[in-house]
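Hey, why these numbers?
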Amino acid sequence: MQLTSSRALRAHMPYLLRIILGRFGRLSALHGSLLGIGVLGVLISVVGFEDGSLVPLLLGLGGILASLIGILTQIVEDWQRVSRIYRDSRISPFDAAYAAPYDGWSRLHFNEFSSVHSEDVDARLRSDPDIPLQIEPGLWDVPAECEGVRRLVRVLLDFDDDKIRLADDLLPDTDRVRVQKTQYSAHVVTNLLGEVMLREQRRRRELVSSEAVLLRNGTIPRLRYSSCSNHLGVDVVAVTTSGRVVLTLQGDKNDTNQGMLAASGSGSMDWKDLRRCPDLLRLVKSTMLREMSEELGLRSRDAIGLGDVRVLRYVRVTNWGGKPQFCGVARLGEVNEEVRGIERRYHRDHFSIDFDPEGTAGDFATTVRGYVEDHAKRISFPLYETLDVLCTWLERDADAWSWLMTR
């Protein structure tokens, strides 16, 4: 029992350290003032009086002690609350209608999940347009009712990276895209509420009301009116010229789709991805390349460029409260994929859909769709969506197959 407790303590030490640093990093007005006055009193007693009075020293030490006791009490309270927080999976995926203009978009369904997309937007993205980025100042703040929970939840995260939030809608006539900095923890207490409910042990009510955050007037709103983080995500499948569609198997550390087959690269845009990316398509492609290279363990000899990536579809994912995502495909030579480094925490293995590279686009689509049908229970929704648009593109665009098989 003692050994088990010792292991548990070591496992939770990072969480406790984050709580301590977090509390000292945002001292309350009372405890911060007491600590400041206490330190000042000690300094005065050391250098300020020659008569040897102990009053400033005693007052200073008292102030420091009182502030430390108060801070320690807050740390204990935070630790107790963090220890009781858990994610309660929804019985069925979140679903709701969209506000205009998204109510007129096409909806795709698979395994109870769904998303919406616009054929006009998709066609425009495939033409590789120049859509400049407009960076909004400051960090996006979550709704007030979510902030306290966000601070607690972020303690449990391995990372709380800065992400790129889509601050306004991407529509067929959009000539500029507004983006803003957000944090991954903001996603956990907003968009992710479409998949899980944050609860506290022994309490049935949610810490944050999912519907209040995800919906506006009973529908999933336009991005400009959304209360969600809405950070941009990508899913890209790698197709090799030797005849393989490379897939990844998600690990247990992933927030979603644990143990499911996913695209060759899937993830979200980091704020640092904005470097040297003045327009939307360059940003999307660069992120797809980064995610795919990390998750397949590609080495320098496997290097590919932006010209080997095509953005095929833009979607809003319903079970994530309308979170914006991009789907794409990358053409590769033969690669030896490997789960390396920190990626071992999030990915278990790689699989592939084998096809005849000497065949036709129709043959490819038949093979891929047959694989999806045979492995439907293991296919994650983002992977299904990406494979679906890839097959549709190859069937409809006469030049798509030759582009995909030429490198």
User: Anything to note?
Assistant: Residues 232 and 324 are 6 Å apart (CA to CA). The radius of gyration is 25 Å. The first strand starts at residue 85 and ends at 89.
